[in-house]
User: What shape does this take?
Amino acid sequence: MRRGDVSHPYLLHEAEIVTRVQEAPDIFTLRLRFSAAARQRDYTFQPGQFNMVYLYGVGEVAISIVSDPEDDLLYDHTIRAVGRVTRGMAALRAGDYVGIRGPYGRGWPLPQAEGRDVLIVTGGLGCAPVVSVIHYILKRRERYGRLIIMQGVKHANDLLWRERYAEWARQPNVEVIIAADQGAPLWPWRIGRVTDLFDQVPFDSERTSAMMCGPEVMMRVAVQQLLARGMNEADIHLSMERNMHCAVGHCGHCQYGGKFVCKDGPVFAYPQVKELFGVRGF
Amino acid sequence: MPKPKNKQTDPPRYPLRYLARASLPALLDSLRAAGYRCIGPQLKEGAVVYAELDTVEQLPRGVHDQQSPGEYRTQASEDERYFAWANGPQAIKPWLFAPRESLWQVARDEHGRLRFRETSPQVTPLAVIGARACDLAALRLQDQHFLHGAHPDPYYQARRESLFIVAVQCSHTAATCFCASTGDGPRAERDFDLALSELNAGYVVETGSQRGASVLAALPLAAATAAQRDAARQQSERAARLQTRALPGRNLRDVLFANLEHPRWDEVAARCLSCGNCTSVCPTCFCHAESEQPALDGAHSEHVREWDSCFTQGHSYIHGLTIRAETRTRYRQWLTHKLGSWHEQYGRSGCVGCGRCMTWCPVGIDITEEASAICGEGT
Ligand code: SF4
Ligand code: FES
Assistant: This one.
């Protein structure tokens, strides 16, 4: 009755850091490959899902997968050094090894959004879960309608990947709206809160799906704005973050009311979470 | 006292038997012969706790317990009975969901390569003697949590599969018990291998499984007489009747979540010490934290899990932010989860009415009282 690796829900698998990219002073991307070729070959995920990433001797963290699901050779994690584990990970270099288990959770409803317009709302510093959506859609441009990307940052200097946004904005049928609470010299985008800018991007509420991640206060305002403009609750999807230890619905840390963010989320349709959304303490 | 409804049920698959008290050691022998390590209640440092049981002499003969919010006392008596008490701080949970457990180990070589190895649980088949109806209800919930999802927990599973349960029907309910109101007791109706009703001179024995029947095969049993069966049943009915506490309803989910800003949360938070005693004695709480124990040689590390509680600071920590920084939101998490969200997660309340959380609460917070204050009596 001994179960092998496959069904042991907590056991990690070694992966090698093939490339490391410093994105900002405290943000870096690790491009990874499982050491076992068969595991790499069989590994599949959906945008919006996450892996548990393990740093030797320190512990694990849940990190969203930002690369394209059809890239068979490598998968990417963009990590912000904010906690004990992620600060330790910042010191990793190409050729180092980490442990990986996953993918976990539910990703974005990208198949259901085919043929529709997609509105991305995100705040904070380079929100990884929606970056995967943007890449996914740009790579499959013909399957989706308009792509509207709304990004808010506190300070103009916080905007990561400036070139990338400019590049996205040049793609057909893509609109990029970036707002910083505080600007800076030569800031080409807007000043103010991103959630104040919905009037400037009229969207067809019947054919638009919204996908958002970032600070919950921002998402709360964004949801209100979208609903006020006639969007259906069920067309709004958001990626939630909570403390995670096990990622498989056992440890209880990620509970959000009756939901386990690790297995029922991290991406939720708004009606699934609206009862508690914005109530402090859950 | 209303007569219990005469429900049309299937005839019992196994007839009721009777075991004289003097023959109880034979039950332990038979369990051991079947390969089980026996675990049973014993009086230790003033409380009935479950520990390895070598002989029936270790059972808490004549011990009664007196429980009230914030208080637990045992009393000796001349009573010959071994199970004349309600419950102690723990029963089955720690034997399946270990308070601390190693999950895996990793070795790192000089090139930084990592080799992960699962820690295999050391499993000796256990026979737990003395489990109560509330303990079995809690066991079903823990089974749902750890086994019935997409990722069964291999440690819990290995122990669960080899667990043998000798339930003992409650004859002495404590003042803190309210299992009748949650529908979980005081009689255990299922999920045991054997169930004993303790009478003055022996036990009416119910058989719940084929395994149970084979353990009985070698014992000097008689058919239970009508008088013995009646005595056993009346004892359970009396236990139910003596319960005075109750939750204000079986499903408080909606009313709790409609009252998240009720002033009572502040009031209870002023008394609550946020110590987590309630969650650690709760037979259904499943929260645990994982942590890393690196060896000093720099070449090995071990990943362990330990029971955690929503009353700790770390439980809701997420990069730089604690979602539940104050006692009010922690107590609210505990109560809304236990009596509310559990319905969404597992189709019923997470409370089995054992009353441990109020007995072992250092300031005597009574879950039935708090729930009634927040939900109203007549829900
Ligand atoms: S969240 Fe609290 S009440 Fe719920 S299982 Fe965890 S410790 Fe128990
Ligand atoms: S991360 Fe452990 S239950 Fe969700």
User: Anything to note?
Assistant: Residues 312 and 336 of chain B are 16 Å apart (CA to CA). Residues 327-346 of chain B form the longest helix (20 residues).
